[in-house]
Amino acid sequence: MGFQSELLEQLNSQYSCAGNHKDAIAMQAYQKDISKFMGIRTPERRAINKAIFSALPIPTSAQLATSARALWKLDFREYQYAACDMLAFFLKELDSEFLGDHVEYLLTHKSWWDSVDSLGTAAISPLTVKYNSVPLMNRWNKSENMWLNRAAIQHQRGRKEETNLDLLFKYCDYHSESREFWITKAIGWALRDVARFNRPAVTQFLKSHPELDRVAVREAEKHLQK
What we know:
mainly alpha, 2 domains, Leucine-rich Repeat Variant
Protein backbone atom coordinates (compact mmCIF):
# COMPACT_ATOMS: atom_id res chain seq x y z
CA MET A 1 0.00 0.00 0.00
CA GLY A 2 1.36 3.44 -0.92
CA PHE A 3 1.88 6.38 1.42
CA GLN A 4 -1.30 8.20 0.43
CA SER A 5 -3.52 5.11 0.57
CA GLU A 6 -2.22 4.11 3.99
CA LEU A 7 -2.54 7.67 5.29
CA LEU A 8 -6.15 8.05 4.18
CA GLU A 9 -7.14 4.61 5.45
CA GLN A 10 -5.69 5.31 8.89
CA LEU A 11 -7.18 8.80 9.13
CA ASN A 12 -10.62 7.62 8.05
CA SER A 13 -10.55 4.81 10.59
CA GLN A 14 -9.34 6.94 13.50
CA TYR A 15 -11.43 10.01 12.74
CA SER A 16 -14.67 8.06 12.39
CA CYS A 17 -14.29 6.97 16.01
CA ALA A 18 -13.14 10.32 17.38
CA GLY A 19 -15.86 12.66 16.12
CA ASN A 20 -18.33 14.31 18.46
CA HIS A 21 -21.60 15.64 17.06
CA LYS A 22 -22.03 18.38 19.67
CA ASP A 23 -18.50 19.66 19.11
CA ALA A 24 -19.02 19.44 15.34
CA ILE A 25 -22.01 21.79 15.54
CA ALA A 26 -20.06 24.28 17.66
CA MET A 27 -17.01 24.15 15.38
CA GLN A 28 -19.08 24.65 12.26
CA ALA A 29 -20.84 27.64 13.79
CA TYR A 30 -17.53 29.17 14.95
CA GLN A 31 -16.13 28.88 11.43
CA LYS A 32 -19.21 30.49 9.89
CA ASP A 33 -20.42 27.29 8.20
CA ILE A 34 -17.50 27.26 5.75
CA SER A 35 -17.31 23.47 6.03
CA LYS A 36 -18.74 20.41 7.72
CA PHE A 37 -16.91 19.21 10.83
CA MET A 38 -16.57 15.82 12.46
CA GLY A 39 -16.09 17.39 15.90
CA ILE A 40 -12.52 16.36 16.72
CA ARG A 41 -10.83 18.85 19.00
CA THR A 42 -7.34 20.06 18.16
CA PRO A 43 -5.34 18.23 20.89
CA GLU A 44 -7.03 14.92 20.10
CA ARG A 45 -6.67 15.42 16.35
CA ARG A 46 -2.98 16.19 16.65
CA ALA A 47 -2.38 13.18 18.88
CA ILE A 48 -4.12 10.91 16.37
CA ASN A 49 -2.21 12.43 13.47
CA LYS A 50 1.17 12.21 15.17
CA ALA A 51 0.69 8.51 15.89
CA ILE A 52 -0.33 7.85 12.28
CA PHE A 53 2.47 9.92 10.76
CA SER A 54 5.08 8.31 12.99
CA ALA A 55 4.14 4.83 11.79
CA LEU A 56 4.26 5.71 8.09
CA PRO A 57 7.36 5.42 5.87
CA ILE A 58 9.13 8.71 5.14
CA PRO A 59 7.39 10.20 2.09
CA THR A 60 8.83 12.15 -0.80
CA SER A 61 7.90 15.75 -1.46
CA ALA A 62 5.76 14.57 -4.38
CA GLN A 63 3.90 12.10 -2.17
CA LEU A 64 3.22 14.82 0.37
CA ALA A 65 1.89 17.05 -2.40
CA THR A 66 -0.57 14.50 -3.75
CA SER A 67 -1.62 13.49 -0.23
CA ALA A 68 -2.25 17.10 0.83
CA ARG A 69 -4.35 17.73 -2.26
CA ALA A 70 -6.30 14.52 -1.64
CA LEU A 71 -7.03 15.57 1.94
CA TRP A 72 -8.06 19.01 0.72
CA LYS A 73 -10.76 17.47 -1.45
CA LEU A 74 -12.46 15.68 1.44
CA ASP A 75 -15.60 17.16 2.95
CA PHE A 76 -14.82 17.47 6.65
CA ARG A 77 -12.58 20.34 7.79
CA GLU A 78 -10.50 18.10 10.02
CA TYR A 79 -8.97 16.60 6.86
CA GLN A 80 -7.66 19.99 5.79
CA TYR A 81 -6.23 20.42 9.27
CA ALA A 82 -4.66 16.96 8.93
CA ALA A 83 -2.96 18.09 5.73
CA CYS A 84 -1.41 21.04 7.57
CA ASP A 85 -0.31 18.79 10.43
CA MET A 86 1.22 16.40 7.90
CA LEU A 87 3.24 19.14 6.20
CA ALA A 88 4.55 20.33 9.55
CA PHE A 89 5.48 16.79 10.61
CA PHE A 90 7.29 15.99 7.37
CA LEU A 91 8.66 19.49 6.82
CA LYS A 92 12.20 18.29 6.09
CA GLU A 93 10.96 16.38 3.05
CA LEU A 94 9.38 19.40 1.31
CA ASP A 95 11.40 20.68 -1.63
CA SER A 96 12.13 24.23 -2.81
CA GLU A 97 9.20 24.25 -5.27
CA PHE A 98 6.58 23.07 -2.80
CA LEU A 99 5.27 26.50 -1.86
CA GLY A 100 4.66 27.70 -5.39
CA ASP A 101 3.56 24.38 -6.84
CA HIS A 102 1.32 23.11 -4.06
CA VAL A 103 0.82 25.40 -1.04
CA GLU A 104 -0.46 28.12 -3.36
CA TYR A 105 -3.13 25.70 -4.57
CA LEU A 106 -4.12 24.88 -0.98
CA LEU A 107 -4.28 28.56 -0.04
CA THR A 108 -6.65 29.33 -2.89
CA HIS A 109 -9.03 26.41 -2.46
CA LYS A 110 -11.49 26.03 0.42
CA SER A 111 -9.95 29.25 1.68
CA TRP A 112 -10.67 30.62 5.12
CA TRP A 113 -8.51 32.13 7.83
CA ASP A 114 -8.09 28.81 9.63
CA SER A 115 -6.56 26.95 6.70
CA VAL A 116 -4.52 29.94 5.49
CA ASP A 117 -2.98 30.62 8.89
CA SER A 118 -2.41 26.92 9.55
CA LEU A 119 -0.52 26.63 6.27
CA GLY A 120 1.45 29.69 7.30
CA THR A 121 2.65 28.04 10.49
CA ALA A 122 3.09 24.54 9.07
CA ALA A 123 4.82 25.28 5.78
CA ILE A 124 5.04 28.89 4.60
CA SER A 125 7.00 30.40 7.46
CA PRO A 126 9.59 27.60 7.79
CA LEU A 127 10.02 27.07 4.04
CA THR A 128 10.57 30.77 3.38
CA VAL A 129 13.44 30.57 5.86
CA LYS A 130 14.89 27.45 4.27
CA TYR A 131 14.57 28.57 0.63
CA ASN A 132 14.76 31.91 -1.14
CA SER A 133 11.09 32.65 -1.60
CA VAL A 134 11.07 36.44 -1.87
CA PRO A 135 10.03 36.43 -5.56
CA LEU A 136 7.12 34.14 -4.70
CA MET A 137 6.08 36.23 -1.69
CA ASN A 138 6.26 39.35 -3.87
CA ARG A 139 3.90 37.72 -6.35
CA TRP A 140 1.52 36.57 -3.61
CA ASN A 141 1.46 40.04 -2.10
CA LYS A 142 0.40 41.58 -5.41
CA SER A 143 -2.07 38.83 -6.27
CA GLU A 144 -5.75 39.56 -6.72
CA ASN A 145 -6.41 36.74 -4.25
CA MET A 146 -6.67 38.18 -0.74
CA TRP A 147 -5.65 34.93 0.92
CA LEU A 148 -2.33 34.95 -0.93
CA ASN A 149 -1.95 38.57 0.18
CA ARG A 150 -2.61 37.57 3.79
CA ALA A 151 -0.11 34.70 3.60
CA ALA A 152 2.59 36.98 2.20
CA ILE A 153 2.04 39.72 4.78
CA GLN A 154 2.20 37.23 7.65
CA HIS A 155 4.96 34.94 6.39
CA GLN A 156 7.61 36.42 8.72
CA ARG A 157 5.57 36.43 11.92
CA GLY A 158 7.50 35.20 14.94
CA ARG A 159 10.98 35.88 13.57
CA LYS A 160 11.62 38.77 15.97
CA GLU A 161 14.93 40.51 15.23
CA GLU A 162 15.48 38.32 12.18
CA THR A 163 12.44 39.87 10.47
CA ASN A 164 13.21 41.59 7.17
CA LEU A 165 11.56 44.88 8.09
CA ASP A 166 12.00 46.47 4.68
CA LEU A 167 10.15 43.57 3.07
CA LEU A 168 7.41 43.52 5.72
CA PHE A 169 6.80 47.25 5.53
CA LYS A 170 6.75 47.08 1.72
CA TYR A 171 4.00 44.48 1.87
CA CYS A 172 2.01 46.45 4.43
CA ASP A 173 2.46 49.66 2.47
CA TYR A 174 1.12 47.99 -0.69
CA HIS A 175 -2.15 47.19 1.10
CA SER A 176 -2.28 50.23 3.34
CA GLU A 177 -5.52 51.52 1.76
CA SER A 178 -7.28 48.16 1.96
CA ARG A 179 -10.51 47.86 3.90
CA GLU A 180 -10.69 44.08 3.55
CA PHE A 181 -10.90 42.76 7.11
CA TRP A 182 -8.61 39.76 6.62
CA ILE A 183 -5.93 41.96 5.05
CA THR A 184 -6.10 44.75 7.60
CA LYS A 185 -6.05 42.20 10.41
CA ALA A 186 -2.94 40.59 8.91
CA ILE A 187 -1.20 43.97 8.67
CA GLY A 188 -2.06 44.72 12.28
CA TRP A 189 -0.79 41.39 13.54
CA ALA A 190 2.44 41.68 11.56
CA LEU A 191 3.08 45.17 12.90
CA ARG A 192 2.19 44.09 16.41
CA ASP A 193 4.87 41.39 16.23
CA VAL A 194 7.46 43.97 15.18
CA ALA A 195 6.40 46.30 18.00
CA ARG A 196 7.56 43.66 20.47
CA PHE A 197 11.19 44.35 19.55
CA ASN A 198 11.17 47.59 17.52
CA ARG A 199 8.56 50.06 18.67
CA PRO A 200 10.09 53.09 16.89
CA ALA A 201 9.85 51.38 13.50
CA VAL A 202 6.15 50.60 13.97
CA THR A 203 5.43 54.06 15.38
CA GLN A 204 7.04 55.61 12.31
CA PHE A 205 5.14 53.32 9.94
CA LEU A 206 1.82 54.23 11.54
CA LYS A 207 2.69 57.93 11.43
CA SER A 208 3.53 57.75 7.73
CA HIS A 209 0.39 55.74 6.88
CA PRO A 210 -2.61 57.64 8.29
CA GLU A 211 -4.80 55.87 5.74
CA LEU A 212 -4.45 52.51 7.51
CA ASP A 213 -7.73 50.93 8.52
CA ARG A 214 -8.56 51.19 12.21
CA VAL A 215 -8.47 47.39 12.57
CA ALA A 216 -4.79 47.36 11.54
CA VAL A 217 -3.93 50.34 13.74
CA ARG A 218 -5.68 48.91 16.79
CA GLU A 219 -3.75 45.63 16.51
CA ALA A 220 -0.43 47.36 15.83
CA GLU A 221 -0.78 49.65 18.84
CA LYS A 222 -1.31 46.88 21.39
CA HIS A 223 2.42 46.55 22.15
CA LEU A 224 3.12 50.24 21.68
CA GLN A 225 0.98 51.01 24.71
CA LYS A 226 2.76 48.64 27.10
